[in-house]
Input
Amino acid sequence: MALFVFESIAQYHKELNDGSTTCLSVVEFYLQQIRQQQHLNAYIEVFEAEALERAAQLDRNNSTGQPLPPLFGVVVGIKDVLCYEGHVVSAASRMLESFTAPYSATCIERLLNAGAIIIGRLNCDEFAMGSSNENSAFGPTLNALDNGRVPGGSSGGSAVAVQAGLCMVSLGSDTGGSVRQPADFTGVYGLKPSYGRISRYGLIAYASSFDQVGIFSKNIADAALVLETIAGADSFDSTSSPAPVPAYSKELKAPEKSYRFAYFREAVEHPSLDPEIRTALLNKFEVLKTAGHQIEAVEFPLLDYIVPTYYILTTAEASSNLSRFDGVRYGHRTKQPVEDLADFYAQNRSEGFGPEVRRRILLGSFVLSAGYYDAYFTKAQQVRRRLFDQTQLIFKDFDAILGPTAPTPAFRFGEKKDDPIAMYLGDIYTVFANLTGLPAISLPIFWHSNGMPFSLQVMTNRFEELSLLQVSASLV
Output
């Protein structure tokens, strides 16, 4: 049987149907790839025996000649913040190092019901807090294109697994760009759906009103197929949307039309944006104009308020969400002698959480404190509302918003580690979609002179993922 080269799920299913490959041989291929590229540290744990057993079972099922389920035999890696019953889920933290999930996340159940093979759990920044994958308790994931550069975060392992061919598609989570930014740094597609499009049940919470499960893939069609499989209402998640889920993968090719594109002038002219990225974007905009599309710069004076607003709100939510990890109900429990209950809690959390998580918990506790709640948290909520209202006005006149995904290509390890403010400002172009609940995608269509990829980010209005995917297909 020929060496398997994955191009798309459709091509894979064609090979399964004509007998030129099997699920078992494909899983063996990916396990070999994972072993050969173990130095990338993309996987925290590989479910080798289980994946092989499931692949063999699927091959037996395939011999019946019945139509294949949508994700039949598709090899998937999952970020280590998604619960998979009977498997450890640690959020890449010592706090949950040996915690076994008692149930599966809804998105995981839907993957399995569609025939997917889950091959392992993927490295990430601890509790999904970070932009570089340097905050994992299990060590950083390396960018496969340049091992001296970060893969982005927090879903760095999920991005590298697809980038390096260690699975077909992967799931991550996106709180402020944690799917799109690592996709940008690694040169793969990264899709964040609208808030509520995919159930958050079984996703370890960072900031509940921001978190959304996202998808990494090597093409738009695969992302569309995974999205239509795992999206939809869920009785276990009251924030999931009851809106019908279109057959995204079957409707990708839209009729030829002239799109109305907007971009934020302040975003493209921002001093933090790498000059090569700016030039590439402006050139792309000119190409779109020449092709007959409308593209206009719109004023967006709130741009510099986005990052402070995001970090005030998300750290406040993180402070609340992570308060449950106290070492009593579950979580790391200190072996050091303690004086009293307060000291016991302090030791458990100090040992269990890494420095970035502790920093965000402290900041969140501060903005929620009695003397500062109105000055910070309430004001940030007001700004969030203004951002949403202004966005709705923009979508009255435009089909999509275009822009950069990150201000620079992948940076070197340690470059921003000691400067949290510089690290946080790297989220300036991605957190907007999370603050407003918009769907967004990172399209890997550019290359920097330093040899690293970078992306065009596309956003559409809430629950218009079909338009987002159709527009994206026309741009690549």
In short: The radius of gyration is 22 Å. The mean pLDDT is 95. The first strand starts at residue 43 and ends at 46.
